[in-house]
From TrEMBL, chain A:
Gene3D superfamilies: Glutaredoxin (3.40.30.10). GO terms for cellular component: cytosol. This is Alkyl hydroperoxide reductase C. Homodimer; disulfide-linked, upon oxidation. 5 homodimers assemble to form a ring-like decamer. Pfam families: AhpC-TSA. Keywords: Antioxidant, Oxidoreductase, Peroxidase, Redox-active center. SUPFAM superfamilies: Thioredoxin-like. GO terms for biological process: cell redox homeostasis; cellular response to stress; hydrogen peroxide catabolic process; response to oxidative stress. Its EC number is 1.11.1.26. It catalyses: a hydroperoxide + NADH + H(+) = an alcohol + NAD(+) + H2O. Residues 6-156 form the Thioredoxin domain. It comes from the Bacteria. The active site is at C48 (cysteine sulfenic acid (-soh) intermediate).
UniProtKB/TrEMBL annotation, chain B:
Belongs to the thioredoxin family. DsbA subfamily. InterPro entries: Thioredoxin-like_fold, Thioredoxin-like_sf, Thioredoxin_domain. This is Thioredoxin domain-containing protein. The lineage of its organism: Bacteria, Pseudomonadati, Bacteroidota, Chitinophagia, Chitinophagales. Residues 1-171 form the Thioredoxin domain. PANTHER family: GLUTATHIONE S-TRANSFERASE KAPPA, SLR0313 PROTEIN. It comes from the Bacteria. SUPFAM superfamilies: Thioredoxin-like. Gene3D superfamilies: Glutaredoxin.
Length: 161, 171
């Protein structure tokens, strides 16, 4: 368990969580792709809804950098399903539901007081290494500019190799 | 947060090109908060237009607002015939009641060359412009609509006319 948000350079802890009522997703299975992990407090809340809507529309921009976005909160798989359907979200939302918040804790972004994930972003490279992380105040939608900048920086380093 | 990239002649703009204040809105034609801001901007242009240039960039959230992208295309296509702002205004004035045929009706009401309008709406170029607007918004840190920038810096807009007016005070 991490007390503070995992920083750049750390290995992203592997996990497997439900992404639909009958499917599970394992982080390591995404090796070879870049992953944007977006931890957020709760389905349906106004700020989370706006943030997820923005990432939904930004998927094309992320994919240009070989990156896929994944949302994570402590909501259950059925709650996620209803939220995804209502908001037409086309990317996975993972249920950090049982044991509650275990993965959020591993990444150092669990809010013990509220019993939910903090609002935090991680950009993970093709090898599973964290290349950028950011903790946003709960009430503030961090947007996607930081994510795009991190992805671009990774592209540049790639080219220099 | 600051505006990226800066304004070019490709941006839809109205007001005084030499003004000391340049206000940029990232907006979605079907977003009700943008609909709320629309008359405020009209008023601002009326009262402060001598020293204000207003620029509109598209930020359609297509999955939440199915008419937002077609509306953006319609406005840009009207722009090809010099009628961006009349179309922009007409869309916001009918925001509560947008449907599939709305934009063709608006084009007729604005006496556009319908054949050309249809071609422009379907052209790749306008879609690419809207996508580029959206991307510039994401890069500028836009996380919802409307988001305003005054002289390139994020404006703290709270839904009131006063918050827009406050941005136009000489430094």
């Amino acid at each position: 368990m991490a007390d503070t948000i995992l920083a750049k350079g750390a290995q992203a802890p592997d996990f497997e969580l439900s992404c639909t009522p009958d499917q599970r997703l394992r982080l390591h299975d995404l090796k070879g792709k870049r992953v944007i992990l977006a931890f957020y407090p709760a389905d349906w809340s106004p700020v989370c809804s706006d943030q997820m809507a923005l990432y939904n529309e930004s998927r094309k921009l992320f994919q240009q950098h070989n990156a896929e976005v994944i949302g994570i909160s402590v909501d259950s798989k059925w709650c996620h399903l209803a939220f995804e359907q209502d908001r037409h979200l086309h990317f996975p939302l993972l249920a950090d539901f049982e044991p509650k918040g275990a993965i959020s804790r591993l990444y150092g972004v669990y809010n013990e007081q509220e019993g939910q994930s903090k609002r935090a972003l991680f950009v993970i490279d093709e090898e599973g290494l964290i290349r950028w992380s950011y903790l946003s105040p709960d009430g503030i939608n961090p947007g996607a500019d930081g994510i795009l900048e991190a992805l671009e920086e990774m592209d540049n380093v790639h080219e220099e190799k | 947060m600051s505006l990226k990239p800066p304004i070019t002649h490709n941006d839809q703009q109205t007001g005084n090109p030499d003004a000391s204040f340049v206000l940029v809105e990232y907006g979605d034609y079907q977003c009700e908060h943008c609909g709320h801001a629309y008359p405020l901007i009209k008023r601002l242009l009326k009262e402060k237009g001598k020293d204000l240039l207003f620029v509109f960039r598209n930020f359609p959230l297509q999955e939440s607002h199915p008419a937002a992208y077609p509306a953006a295309l319609a406005a840009e296509a009207a722009g090809r015939q010099g009628k961006f702002w009349p179309m922009h205004d007409m869309i916001y004035e009918h925001q509560d009641n947008l449907h599939g045929n709305s934009f063709m009706q608006f084009a007729e009401a604005l006496k556009l060359d319908i054949e050309r309008f249809r071609e422009d709406v379907e052209s790749d170029a306008l879609g690419l412009k809207i996508d580029a607007d959206f991307e510039s918004g994401v890069r500028s840190g836009v996380n919802g609509t409307p988001t305003f920038f005054i002289n390139g810096e994020l404006l703290a807009y709270d839904g009131t006319y006063a918050s827009l007016l406050a941005a136009l005070q000489p430094v």
